[in-house]
Amino acid sequence: MSLVVVIESIRRHFAHLGYIAALLILIVIVVMMTAIGAPASAPYALISLFTLVAGCQLIGPEFSSGTLQLILSKPVGRSAYLTGRVAGVVISIWVAVASILASDIVGRLIAGTPIIWRTVLWAALVSALKVLLTCSLLALFGSFTRSYVNIGIYLGGQIVLSGIYGLLSIMKNAFTGEMAAVGRLLRAHPGILEGYRAVQTNLFPDDPLIPFDRNWILLMTCNAVVAVLLACVIFSRREVPYGAD
Amino acid sequence: MNGIRVEGLTKTYHPFGAKRPVLKGVDLTIAPGEVVGLIGPNGAGKTTLMSCIVGFLNADEGTITIDGRSNDDLDVRRRTGFVPERMNFDRRANGGAFLRYMARLAGVPRDRVHARVDELLNRLGLADAEDKRLSQYSRGMLQRIGMAQALMLDPDFLFLDEPTSGLDPNGVFLVRDLIAEEKARGAAVLLNSHQLAEIEKVCDRVLFLSGGVIARDEALREIARITIVVTMLPGSYDAGAVEAAAGAVPVNDIVATNVTSEAEVAQLVSRIVSTGAGVIDVRRRTADLESIFRGEA
């Protein structure tokens, strides 16, 4: 990982007026939500949008703008660059998560609502891990596409995988008609649906039901690491055609 | 130090499944201290060749070595400078911040970053624009800052893609001087340009890329190739005597002849003057790139 790239990525975020404005708006919204007694996890819903906006710029737009050629002509390995970018973007969004956590606590102190530390900290940790996985996936999808296609794959993947799972679940219960054969197959081989569901939950995990669920924390961390490693392998072999789109 | 060596380089693009061979076995060498120009018609594969050498594209076949090592070796990159035709970077960054980032990426020691950036900004005439955002830079200023980032570590291998494109005459002179300085320092320079006059002025050798191969490899500084063109005052000379002195018939008061050594230039002029001819201009004409281009394109 290149520390220079990490620092530059963070600097770029904090030098961006849009990022600072979004962060301030986020803080105000969180304080207001807390004041009306919103649950601890509610403010973090806003982080998903924040992550998508910041994460989609991870690598794809650099292919398209021609920035990447300039950077790759320097003595920095491609994997070191990519992991540096992921770390820089993740840290920048984690600052937003930390700001939400602090605003939430301040809001609760002002409103006089009791702070349940276990719940508050778990909500922040869930959000931070979701940021890590989302950015890793966006890096993976960006490693073989250009421009903002990574965000398209990410959102499209979520919709399509859920849609297909729903469809397969319905088909599984088909006993008559044209889908009966598919239904028989899915009932005879439950592993198909289970395997499909495993892929879906690994890429886009559901929120954990148990606070500080170690398995969930491990799943998120491992999947993020695997996604970044795959992204590095693809990116290191990828051609970077000279010139902008 | 070895230079840049390319052997049997082939590269084929596959747009929508079709096969489009661009480079069909390119061989070239660039020695340290040599400036080589790359010319050819649009679509000849000049940019593809440069991209393969710098390591942005993978060659299908063939080998590329820079100082005897692979072109993706990080130590080779540390000694390489690359100037893209169009500078694209985070346009919100200011010139100074951009160069400092490039310096850190290039591995300039932390305590030297600011000093080195200041040196380059001064050298490239951008000191006043240090705090300006890149979005406010003109095309010429972007070219200059592109040149500055390439020279960050005094590279041994310099790749320039249209470095004078968009520059005003002062900028062109500056780039010409910088190339001469890099050559004097011993850097191997590959210059891709459409500006034949610039190539003639700065390059030792020119490669004409056509049909996916190096169709011609012309040495521009080879004295045997240099023609001396002498212009005489109309009516001041005897054509027969000048022909005998120069070995060529004067046409329209101009006599053009080849020489084989530097000393012979002075002797030739002296012989022509001794016939009583009023010599008003003496010029050296190097290999005519325009004719090469027209002939091969």
Describe what this molecule looks like in 3D.
The complex is a heterodimer of chains A (245) and B (297). By secondary structure, chain A is mostly helical. Chain A has a domain at 3-148 and 214-237. Chain A has helices spanning 3-14, 17-35, 45-55, 60-65, 67-72, 78-111, 117-142, 149-172, 180-188, 190-203, 214-237. In chain A, helix 6 runs antiparallel to helix 7 and helix 7 (117-142) packs across helix 8. The model of chain A has no long low-confidence stretch (mean pLDDT 86). Chain B has helices spanning 46-54, 74-78, 95-106, 113-123, 139-150, 169-185, 196-202, 239-246, 262-274, 289-296; strands spanning 4-13, 20-30, 35-39, 61-66, 69-70, 80-83, 157-161, 188-192, 205-210, 213-219, 227-232, 254-258, 279-285. Chain B has 2 domains: 4-219, Rossmann fold, CATH 3.40.50; 223-296, Alpha-Beta Plaits, CATH 3.30.70. In chain B, the strands form 3 sheets. Chain B has a 6-stranded mixed beta sheet, with helices on both faces. A 4-stranded antiparallel beta sheet of chain B has the order 2-1-4-5, covered by helices on one side. In chain B, a hairpin with a 2-residue loop joins strand 4 (61-66) and strand 5. The model of chain B has no long low-confidence stretch (mean pLDDT 85). By secondary structure, chain B is α/β, with parallel strands linked by helices. Chain B is globular and about 70 Å long.
